[in-house]
Amino acid sequence: MKNLSLAVLTIALSTSVFSASATTISAQSQKYGVDGVEVIVGDTQYASGSHAGAIGDPGIGLQPIFFGTRISFASFKARATENEHGVYELAASTSAHSANTGKFNFTQVANAEVYFGDWSKTGIDGDATHTAFYSGKDVSESLPNSGQVEYTIAGINQFDSSGKLSGTFNADFDTKEYTGSLSGHELNITMSGDILEQEQYQFNGTAIANESIEGHSYGNFFGADATEVAGIVSFGSEHIKDVAFGGSKAQ
């Protein structure tokens, strides 16, 4: 898995958006401000009054609302409705800011400040603006030198269902490689690649959806001992299949 194909690298360069502060790292599958994508994740820029959290925490913004100024996910979560699957939802509608917020589905990794989910402008199946994202605090500054770790993960794709895809992520810190899988109602995804501690993404490789559609998988570890993981699987122009995922070490 040490060499990615040219096609995978092309997908990575065309779909990945990355930002980091001292403790928060974020990514999304489509670029903010391009082709109607109005969502942006990164470190929190505004935390005052009714907006909880702190500057620098994992945050999210929308272009129609104060030009994408990011508020914390902690504050954003308080404005959403948690469904029976533990997914926070905001329907595509006009908000108090007189702007169409688009549709959000997102969740949190256990009690960690790590969030993942997706957004689309309309919430209608086939929406080309569909964007998967994650944003987490306390990215792992160093990774284990050896051993195998299994993570229990979940995925979000609002067009697969209002629930979560389920799966596992396996990190082999001996060989510096990973594998993983996610299963949903209509999406079944496998992933594999390399663990690259010093790179922008701490793991980076390939993905396959429904046994035939080639894509890209990438993400980061969080916590002092790589306790949590979060990432994205993206599929080039087939944005409808992009999935954000996250999870913790299996017990």
From TrEMBL:
Question: Keyword annotations for this protein?
Answer: Signal
One Pfam family name is HphA_C
Q: Which InterPro entries does its entry note? A: HphA_C (IPR054536), HphA_N (IPR054535), OMP/PagP_B-barrel (IPR011250), Slam_hemophilin_C (IPR054843)
What SUPFAM superfamilies does the record tag this protein with?
A: OMPA-like (SSF56925)
Domain (HphA C-terminal): give its ranges: 142-249
HphA N-terminal heme-binding domain mapped to chain residues: 34-131
Signal peptide position in this chain?
Answer: 1-19
Organism (species): Providencia manganoxydans
Name the UniProt record assigns to this protein = Transferrin-binding protein B C-lobe/N-lobe beta barrel domain-containing protein
